Amino acid sequence: MANNNKQSEICYMCGRPKSQVHQLLKGKYGYICDNCVNDAHEILQKEEEKIISQNMQLATPRQIKDHLDQFVIGQDNAKMALSVAVYNHYKRISQRKKSDIEIQKSNILMIGSTGSGKTYLAQSLAKYLGVPFVIADATTLTEAGYVGEDVESILLKLLQVANFDVEKAEKGIIYIDEIDKLARRGENTSITRDVSGEGVQQVLLKILEGTVSSVPLSGGRRHPQAQCIDIDTSNILFICGGAFEGLEKIMNRKSDSKPIGFGADVQIKNEIDTVDLSDVQQHDLMKFGLLPELLGRLPIITTLQPLAEEDLIRILKEPKNALTKQYKELLAMDKVKLEFEESALKRIAELAIEKNIGARGLRSIIEKAMQQVMFDIPDIVGARKVVVTHGVIDGTEEPIVYGARNKKIA
What we know:
single chain; Rossmann fold; Helicase, Ruva Protein, domain 3
């Protein structure tokens, strides 16, 4: 019997016995060796990459926007601009017909207030395309040789996300947040060294445009003995985002003309004219402090509008992964139904606007209101339904808990 058992311990796919493999995994119908598992994994990975490449080529701007609509509320102009830019970018990468006309890369600059959805748009986009995606904070970057992160550290993060597959990383997306914090101090070239502002803009120029950059695998500062990998950034799509606070004042100055002469119509303005950020021009951003060369490498400029109360209420309810749906799912695991009254959702949106935190702050507001509910519900015997009211959000009322046949539980 012992000999029969030893003979039966062979991989049913390749026929290797246990002595010739590192490990045999037992299944319902026999054994499979680690070599066959690895081979199967490689085959599936190649098939997945093939599907991803097909998705890049087949997804039209309308299909990309339709996908973004499922996760991001409003911001139609920004979604349309992103969809077209991404479609053209990956169409440029996948072009097989050789031409004398070189199509330049279309990097994107997104301008919008905090919580308007800049980062979430970029994340949803990368997830749909199935490409490596990283978020970098521009405020941590400095010129080489100074305390802080080198610009090449962004490429290392992208390489890590791509499991050190260089070819895959070279088709990824990098989102650089807080790009407005790199603005130089004044419109003229600075006399003193600005290593975390204008200096970083200078370093970003080549990477944004496309260059072969040596990335140290050990991370940190580059030194001669460090092992490096060369990454070509020509096909990496860069999306930069920032709030650009104070840009409205710069845009308002050009429209604030001062009449001169005895017959001039003089009007005193008590309030600053409201400025539509969608009218922003490159010279406005230059006055803000971005280098003309950097703006030249960010040809697509799109703006996101501040979210209104109605938009925030829709964000709470409509997207596939809406916050209210997440909490309903959590309580459903305890076999309890969760319901938010419309007045409660309205109050959450009002608080987000009052605190000027946009969609990003919605979760913290709900989390604070739901903390006691999530703590008590598992221990309430017979609880079947919880209703969150306006007062629960303000902290002045307890949530309404129902048991069997919708009877209130005190």
